[in-house]
Amino acid sequence: GPKIRVSNFADGKIELENGATFILDSDKDNDGDLKRVSISNPEIYPSLEPGIELLLDDGKLRLVVEKNNGESVETKVLVGGTLSNHKGINIPGAILPMSALTEKDRKDLNFALDMGVDWIALSFVQRPEDVAEARKLIAGRAGILAKMEKPLAIEHLKQIVELSDALMVARGDLGVEAPPEDVPGLQKKIIRRARSEGKPVIVATQMLESMITSPTPTRAEASDVATAVFDGADAVMLSAETAAGEYPVEAVSIMNRIIQSAEQDDHYKLSQMRDRRQTRGTDADAITAAAKQVAQTLDAAAIVTFTTTGSTTLRAARERPDVPILGLTPDIRTARRMVLAWGVHPVETSHFQEFADVVDSAIDVAIKEEFATEGQRLIITAGVPFGTPGATNVLRIVWVGETPSVPRRAGSN
Q1: β-strand 81-84 against 13-16: which pairing, if any?
Q2: Radius of gyration in angstroms for the set of CA atoms belonging to the chain, rounded to a whole number
Q3: Domain boundary at 273, 295, 327, which?
């Protein structure tokens, strides 16, 4: 995505004083100084009307636009400080005339797709059209994960969620462009909308920030991770803690312990039931909701979904059942993408022509993967005919160790 940055300064950095005048221009041939500097994306200048605030270096410095001549803007320093080479600029109050994909992004995207990546994270999404553009270029070769880090994107949240395959609550830039007191509420809003559409959602940024240099997190950080779990996130993510921190293994271990503790808390189950939206009036949603209820009533060992595209399994994950979800799929790409979804253990299987084969495979996998033992029940859901996206229309209860009584067509093996 297009991260707007200042260019170089002659001395590497400058000190901006409160109340000083500072110009952003298009002169990339000359290094910046105390009076001016160029930026990476001068095409944004026409959008910067007087009164718009610019946040530099993750919000540490604040400027306000006073004059705009189309090719440069004159600003007043509201909050000064040290500004060094290539620091970022956030502009929460403007709709910027920029695609979410730069020319470099397009080249990198083609390379990544050729390498077979599972997900493409789309940064700085402003509007649904940004996701639609990426989807056209990706053409189904990877899942699209929209990073929600601009307040403008929240205004189009419903459409962005519908167009994306997964979302990330990217609290770094979101916390710069939105007031910090708004971020917890925005996090909950994004998670609720993503879950209502059956789309996985990740919460990221500064979750265990102190563990970059400390072997233990603060109590506030532990609470932050648990809150994301209670909110209904499918995944929580570490970044600097493991990429550059001194205690990467400890950070992963502690985060895992926090997640497990939160999910065992009585409040967790209540919060997931409370946040569950009303079942839609479709066969697929009715079958999936019923699978959760039947599994709970019969104390089943697991829910087993058979899916080609992943839609059946994602519906099951949306319901947040009390039992694990075994996601069987003949498509290895679908299996890898389903790892992101809540409670799902994906397994690549053969292509099946008969539902009886699905039952056989479900029992075999449940035993092999140690999710069930003989005499326990499995709840199986699938869509028939196989391979039809969104066609979840079958629910079957089986006992591990029984001989399946599903009829096969004449001549089938």
Answers
A1: antiparallel
A2: 25
A3: 273
